[in-house]
Write a structure and sequence with these properties.
The complex is a heterodimer of chains A (253) and B (419). With 253 residues, chain A is α/β, with parallel strands linked by helices. Chain A folds into 2 domains: 2-124, no CATH class; 133-252, no CATH class. Chain A is 47% helix and 15% strand. Chain A contains 10 helices and 8 strands. Chain A has helices at residues 11-23, 36-39, 52-65, 68-79, 85-98, 110-132, 154-164, 200-206, 212-225, 234-240, and strands at residues 2-7, 28-33, 45-47, 136-137, 143-147, 170-174, 179-183, 188-192. In chain A, strands 4-5-6-7-8 form a 5-stranded mixed sheet, with helices on one face. In chain A, a hairpin with a 5-residue loop joins strand 4 (136-137) and strand 5 (143-147). Chain B has 419 residues and is of the alpha/beta class. Helices cover 40% and strands 9% of the residues of chain B. Chain B contains 16 helices and 10 strands. A 6-stranded parallel sheet of chain B has the order 3-4-5-6-7-8. In chain B, strands 1-2 form a two-stranded antiparallel ribbon. In chain B, helix 3 (117-133) runs parallel beside helix 4 and helix 10 runs antiparallel to helix 15. The chains are: A alpha/beta (253), B alpha/beta (419). Chains A and B meet through helix 6, strand 4, helix 9 and helix 10 of A and helix 1, strand 1, strand 2, helix 2 and helix 12 of B. The complex binds iron/sulfur cluster (SF4). The site of iron/sulfur cluster has 8 residues of chain B, from loops.
Amino acid sequence: MTTTLVYDGSFEGLLTAVFEVYEHRLEYVKLVKGEWRSIALFDNVMQIVTDESRYGRVLKGLQKKLSPSGMQRLYVAHLSGIDDADSAALGYIRYVFDAQQNIEEDYGNRYVMRVSEIVKMMRREKHRMEAFIRFQKLQDGLFYSVIEPDFNVLPMLIRHFKNRYADQRWMIYDLKRKYGIYYDLHQVEFMEMDFSEGQGAANVISSFTDDEDAYQHLWKNYFKSVNIASRKNTKLHIRHIPKRYWKHLTEKI
Amino acid sequence: MNLERITEKLNILADAAKYDVSCASSGSKRKNENKGLGNASNGICHSYTEDGRCVSLLKILLTNHCIFDCAYCVSRKSNDIKRAAFTVQEVVDLTINFYRRNYIEGLFLSSGIFKDADTTMERLVQVAKKLRTEHKFNGYIHLKSIPGASDELMREAGLYADRLSVNLEMPTEEGLKLLAPDKDRKDMIQPMDFLRNEIIQRAEEKKLFKKAPMFAPAGQSTQVIVGATAIEDDRAILHSANHFYKNFKLKRVYYSGYVPVLADNRLPALNTAVPMVRENRLYQADWLMRFYGFRVNEIVNNDQPHLDLDIDPKLSWALRNMQIFPVDINKADLQVILRVPGIGLLSAQKIVSARKFNRLNWEHIKKLGVAVNRARYFITCNSNAYERRDLTGTRIKQFILAESQSKYLKNKPDQLSLF
Ligand code: SF4
């Protein structure tokens, strides 16, 4: 019989769910994100109350059996927000605890495989963002960028941009998930605000520095000049830069 | 800034630089330790041209004025084109401002030879020096080493640049004599030789003294033009590449399919197609030599002076060596698995890891990223279904080609999915 576990959707909540699985010796489980009340109509539902003493123990156990990179992959998979990511992570964790040896490379196991697939998708999106982010310089010296990534990769971008642009203030805003990261020359902070409605975009354009237009113009020209017409290959071009990314790319606008 | 003037210069000098295909910005680990601007690590393609090539660096010439007359080059002296020249400051400003907006990983600066080799090289070095010292720029810098420039200037260039390159352009000495009579192959080899020694020596110093300055940490590369003359077959090109990898410790050899830009009876006619498939096959062969443990003789030799155009060089090798197959995926050494068509570097490593847990079957192998439609003729696994039966190489080739017509026969190079 399958037991439905209702949890809050957080990583800690997920780990607490793992705790309950072992505590109550559950075999078949299904994870559902959300409120207890709305789902409580079904049989065999269990509410997971995120609780530090419980997820802390699971975390400790995992750290003993997984390499640091294995831990990180699990977290990245969760971060993705992909529908079956947490279920895959749950299956993965149970396999970790049930197995005698380290199973991180057992790609024959479907959970290990699925987590690895999700991590791959996340890494790919992260790399895309590192490549496709375009900053625009505002009058107060802030370098500002808007993105709409497929997955929630903003937290994974912090290190790269902080190392690279250590001497300029910058902000990257995820329009889909309505939050951003801001670097003030010392540290990076998360910011929540809603740019999607109202005057946001227009305000930003009117506050560009004087030479912002000039450099955008030069970059577009550069992009045009490096093309070799006799080698044109639109299919390959689109495979590298899928169309959904074009609207935030200076050279493609 | 005079936008109109700069735009014009940029258009001319980017256009003239674009035939240099190298755009790599990897191999350097320059960190941003001085809280300056930028770092260099794995190299990012920030955009892609409409022909599908990576745009990673601001790739420009300092000037397209040139005293030489190389037949294959748009900037040659006798060509009637618009000329332009950047000032040092203009290049610095463009680089910094493009970099801050995350357009690029850095600068690739080359130049026509104005006045003489040393004057030209000196100006290139000035740009790099200014970026590194005045702007604390830690992004990627690739400088072209001008053939014939002094050792002193080369040494200084190495202190600021991540990568240096001398373009051989013609894979063989005969080719060079024919198309670039002003150039002396010795002038190209000499700086390569100097840099190789310098890079080795500096790397040794760096091991002993952590504080020793970096010297061209991304090494040196070169480019050869493919298909400009008929005398250079793939065997000549790959042997030459192999020679430079081995003896000059080059990081990369780039193959650039000749784009007909000039009418000259020594060159292919203007309407000749760019040899893109051949170029792609050369890159594949190059990978086989560098990462898959193939010797150059196994890929091209007297019986096989040209690479097959319709199938990739790994498949081609496998079909010539059917006695080695099938290999058992659950037992064979990594080195052997790497030689199976349809199995790439990553999948090969995953196979070796995953088989410790389970004996792998077709389902597993597929999930590990193997192109089973090709690999199945060459392997056995934990399953009775074995595809090869007693097929001959020719039959297998027909089967594979029939299944993947579009993939092999179209003019579609792709550096990412090689095998
Ligand atoms: S020396 Fe360089 S720039 Fe000048 S013509 Fe020859 S290849 Fe072109």
